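Example 3.2
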Amino acid sequence: MKKLIIILCFGLAACNEDMPGAVRLENCGSTKNAAIEAVGKRFLEAGTVGVNIALKSPQGEWNYSAGKADLANDIDLSPCHTLRIGSISKTFAAILIMKLQEEGKLSINDKAAKYLPEEYVKNVENLSEVTIKQVMQHTSGIRNYLEIRTFMDIYNGSLSGDGSKENVRRVFGKKAYFKPGENWQYSNTNYLLLAMIIEQIEGKSAYEVMKQKFFDPLQLQNTIAGKAPSSLSRGYYDSFNNGLMRDLTTVDYDAVGGLDMLDGGLISNAHDMNVFMDAFGKGKIISQASITEMQSPSNANVELPEELRYIKDYGLGLFLIDINGQKGFGHGGNVHCFNGVTYYFPDSGTSISILVNSYSTKIDKVLYDAGTLESLLQF
């Protein structure tokens, strides 16, 4: 089996625009819950600057935050602060594509080229042949534009503010990984192409469409596409895994600040993500038939490290997981400083979302540990 380096993440980018400090948010206290607090403590002990956890089940709803939103200004992280959600954005994008299919505006079995400019079809290898479904499943073979970005480009500011169309251009003339449908390879380019398809069909930016069809109807007041809100937490990175956190908020701001970055550009909090996943999982956004279709496995031929073997496959914008017999679906995300996961478990009707505003390998181990999800499911 092919050795997997599974990218539950979005990537890095330049830092040439300063961001204000996080604002202090009042009257937004955490909901007390021993199980959630115990999980939060694990994150803090691992060195997390701030953690936001939400649990929604038939037994109730809990929203919890601990740690700091801004170390320099000593501002506590509240449940009302927002954080970048990275590749969790892909789940939003995939559901939007399924919504358009239900509206009769496309079929996921259509060739993606049907909805894309000829210039892109000619210059992106495989794009003339792949279906929208293959793009959603990461079986397109199309190169990941993040491989084209060099670390020098990331930090010298030359990539600041690029949107979906500009970033897809980075793979012009680049060799595909394999022929469409022959294998599985995670590629952020796929979800930038979906953004372009949405724009072509709807005649407006994918971000606008998402706001119109999802954010406004569900009253996701803390979910934002585009300009960073004042509620956004600062982001921190432990570069050397020595416990010293560096504020790299501007890196993430420039990484995903461009238009229609549906591979990782959304901002939200754990509460809003749970509202969205609960509505999605219960068939309130798209039909149960579409939800089932989204769980179609891609049969990814990959080798996972033991601690990630609860991830069973990848569907359409969804990781398919099994926590001791409890099957769920959702996604993980990372934008350098910000990390998170969101999952829905249909048998119990439970949504779990966790976001942190800091990265280190120790924090990652807690975030992607099956035991973290298991502890919350047992509550």
